[in-house]
Amino acid sequence: MTANAAGAARSAKDSAEQAGDRAVNSRPFRILVTVGLITYGIVHILVGWIALQIAWGLGGGSGEASQQGALAELAQQPVGVVILWLTVLGLFAMTAWQAAEAAWGHRDRPEGFKRIRKRLASVGRALTYAAIALAAISALRGASQSGDQKQEGWTARLLGMPFGRILVALVGVVIIVLAVRQVIKGVKRKFTEDLSGGVSAGVQRLGQIGYISKGVAMVVIGGLFGWAALTYDASKAGGLDDALRTINSAPLGSVLLTVVALGLVCFGVFCFFWARHPKIAASPNTADR
């Protein structure tokens, strides 16, 4: 590549980054991110509430304790359609925010492994937010397939592939690794890196409890995938609902599930404070200076 071509490519890249930076730092975009974080919190509070119903047999405990179940519950409320549309808009904005972070963000980190790790984490967040937004669209359309049914469906397809059991086992390992990272993030309060400005000790405690609880639930999900690989049975795999029901079936399960459910509620409340202090990407052209 000639010097002129390299310079033109660099100039085009800088222009794209500047345009993206202006977009994610615009007031309308920040409002959408705030809405997304608030609805993200509402979803977690509803999941926690459904889990409490399962733990103590309230209302039959028949609801699905997952994002899909929480969104289905929202759809049945008088203003549920409005909230679901706000959820879709807000979470797609959050997806774009994390995609921008993955592309050119985290310039406050030194070049190399640490920056790459943070950008990969942003990719994971973008996928998570997009998945919940799509689930909200499904709820608006009245789709009835549960999250756990979807998990079992694609797990069965994986098991049918060459080396399928190894692939499913690897999925379980990846989920457990991510779960441990969630727990560490909670214990070490690393989630404060996602906030612009400080928050009170009480809010930090909510975040700690929330991230640790989410990590515990994810460990069980990873274990279910591992069990599906060992038994060669896709029905053993499952999502959040299966994980929480597995906790409930353990000795002292209702107590354990109550603790996890309250932790999910704590995370939901933490999201409301996060919505007030989201750390949006700094300008890529100034952060390295």
TrEMBL record:
It comes from the Bacteria. Keywords: Membrane, Transmembrane, Transmembrane helix. Pfam families: DUF1206. InterPro entries: DUF1206 (IPR009597). Coiled coil: none annotated. The chain crosses the membrane at residues 31-59, 79-100, 120-140, 160-180, 215-232, 252-275. Residues 35-105, 123-189, 209-276 form the DUF1206 domain. This is DUF1206 domain-containing protein. It comes from Nakamurella multipartita (strain ATCC 700099 / DSM 44233 / CIP 104796 / JCM 9543 / NBRC 105858 / Y-104) (Microsphaera multipartita). The lineage of its organism: Bacteria, Bacillati, Actinomycetota, Actinomycetes, Nakamurellales.
